[in-house]
Amino acid sequence: MRLLKLGVVLALIVVAAIVTLASVSYIANKDNSDNKLVLQDMNIFKEEECVEDSGEEICTEILYMQNVGGDKIPLMTGRTIRETVFVTEYIEKEKIVVEEKKARGEEKPSPADRIKDGDVRTFSDSVRIDISNAKWRKYIDSNSMDPLIDEGTTTIEIRPRYSSEVKIGDIIAYNMEGYDYAFVHRVVKIGNDKDGIYFITKGDNYYREDSYKVRFSQVEGIVVGILY
Fold first, then answer.
1. Which residues are 50's β-sheet partners?
2. Alpha carbon distance 100, 108 (integer Å)
3. Within 13 Å of residue 173, how many CA atoms lie on the same side as its CB?
4. Which residues contact 129 (CB under 8 A, 6 or more apart)?
């Protein structure tokens, strides 16, 4: 009889243990299922704030999880540095920028290169430039070519033999009727009419072209050197 009671007690203990384990397993599964549902209901999004510092754009990036209630939960943070390129106009090394400016017609033509490296020799007490048919010119305070040429500047010129030697971008000295001094402006256009070749000039410091046509017979020289 005592053995029968002991068997019944053991059976009840085994059944209770099985029920307990089943309950724990169910709760665990339920928790896992709930967790999955919560994650599915959350949105992951990014917020980014950028500031510029010494030529660099520094961005701080934060990732958030947001649940259905609207609460933001930080997920992780990162830091990204993006370079912002600042290009100074007319710098020799910025070849691509110069080419783009040429394509858009924004770059102004420079004077033709007439003095080669081998034509210039420097000594401890002098400088020698091997160039023929040259002369020099001094200037008054006219302001039309500021800041390149102003009062006190000395230029070196050569006299062209043919009109074809004058190019757009060249700075030329030419005489004007009624003035006892030459004008020195830059050639911005070259044309041809019934009277032949003509040049349209403009002072670098003036907002519009000169209103007259300069003929080759008026040209006294092409500026090939500027001394300060």
1. 59
2. 13
3. 24
4. 115, 119, 120, 121, 156, 225
Do 132 and 139 touch, CB atoms closer than 8 A? no
Cis upstream peptide for 147 (omega within 30°): yes
For residue 159, give the amino acid letter: R
Instruction: Report yes or no: 169 and 111 within 8 Å, Cβ to Cβ.
Output: yes
Q: Are 184 and 171 in contact (CB under 8 A)?
A: yes
* Mean pLDDT calculated for residue range 165-171: 97
What is the mean pLDDT of the segment spanning 117-139? 92
In this prediction the pTM is 0.55
Fill in the DSSP letter of residue 83: E
CATH 3.40.120.10 is held by the domain 133-227: no
H/E stretch holding 196: strand 196-202
What does the alpha-carbon distance between residue 95 and residue 32 come to, in Å, rounded to a whole number?
A: 62
74 pLDDT band (50/70/90 cuts)?
A: low
Q: SS3 helix, strand, coil % of the chain, rounded to 5?
A: 25, 35, 40
pLDDT exceeds cutoff 50 at 79: no
Q: Inform me whether the pLDDT recorded for 52 exceeds 50.
A: yes
Q: How many CA atoms lie within 13 A of 13 on its CB side?
A: 6
User: pLDDT tens digits for 1-41?
Assistant: 555 455 544 555 555 555 454 444 444 444 444 433 344 45
Spacing of C-alpha 25 from chain mean position: 65
